[in-house]
Amino acid sequence: PARYNELVGLQHIKLYLFDNDVIISGANLSHDYFTNRQDRYIVISECPSLADFYFGLVERLSAVSMSLDERNTLTPSTPHLHPYLSTLQSYESEARNSVWGYYLQAADKSAQAQTQDTGDTWVFPLLGLPPLAVNQDSTVTRRILESAESGSTIHLATGYFNLTDEYTATILENSRACFRLLMAHPTANGFLAAHGLAGGIPGAYTRFAAMFLERAQQCGRVAMWEYQRPGWTYHAKGLWLTPPGYHRPHFTLIGSSNFGARSVQRDLENQMAIYTNNGHLQDVLLSEQEHLYKLGTPFSLEVATLPERRPALWVLAFMWFFKSYF
Predict the structure, then answer these.
(1) Is 14 an active-site residue?
(2) Which of 59, 145, 307, 314 has CA 20 to 30 A from 100's CA?
């Protein structure tokens, strides 16, 4: 859709299935993701149960969505369930029962099958479906942030720095971990030089980051970087958690969520939580994290006040109104 059509909300899940293989990512399939747009990808091979789960999830989501035919005509996939002509209550209730009910059944089935499992890595899909009142992803993410032990380090990355008030409070007030945050430098922001209101978005993100850092200085556990690579844009998101006494991540979140207001309040999102005791996989996660962060330049309040980084007055005037839209 046109960029402004996305304001209300969109299907933001990125998921790729090939037989028994699953690719989880935050990337779309447009040209720049294969050339000069940085993102993350994790491939889980030969895992039929996970592939079957995601296949079923796509079917359930498709059944409560519109179907587009070769004549460019939209019709509801389920005739009596129209996303915007049905009453909001009836659509939300039936769609939620279908999609979330499927998830709960799959989780119960998986728990029963894994009672004797002795594997070293656990994979747990997380869903955020605000139009269907499913907020599992953001709830679990907050619990991860606040339950991290003192001495642990969380590297959190997002292409668009616009943390919700709940995430901000969790990081600054309720968590004991040290945080290393990575975001897009304005020159690596996909909205750079966009026409109209969208052109002011990079400046708004700088302002949001500066306001967060002002508060973060009081706790002394937060440092921030901006991804900057000539000719590239930045879209990677997720987190890596390294427990106290270790130098490699044992846990990661990967998927479509940017941890912002859109992800929590508007868009359909999917993340995958991965916990591992496998040393080789921990090395791979560390290598991925370091590959992203080595291209980061420190972000400070001094950087935010540079003349070229100050948002235009009209951006400051409108940014709070649009905060929940990007």
Answers:
(1) yes
(2) 145
Better pLDDT: 233 or 198:
233
- C-alpha closest to that of 166 among 127, 139, 194: 139
12 catalytic? Reply is yes
Q: How far from 140 is each of 27, 271, 273, CA to CA, in Å?
A: 22, 10, 9
245 is written with which tokens? 């006494």
Contact 182, 155 (CB under 8 A): yes
Short-list 50, 79, 56, CA closest to 66 = 79
- Angstrom CA distances, 130 to 12, 67, 123, 147, stand at 12, 21, 23, 24
pTM of the predicted protein model: 0.94
Which helix H or strand E contains 254, and what residues bound it? strand 251-255
Rounded Cα–Cα distance for residues 211 and 65 (Å): 38
Q: What is the CATH number of domain 121-325?
A: 3.30.870.10
Tokens of 236: 């990677």
Q: Which amino acid would we find at residue 243?
A: P
Sign (positive or negative) of CA dihedral 135, 273, 13, 3: positive
Task: State how far the Cα of 90 lies from the Cα of 4, in Å rounded to an integer.
Answer: 27
Tell me the pairing of strands 153-157 and 178-184.
parallel
Helices and strands (H and E) in the chain: how many: 9, 15
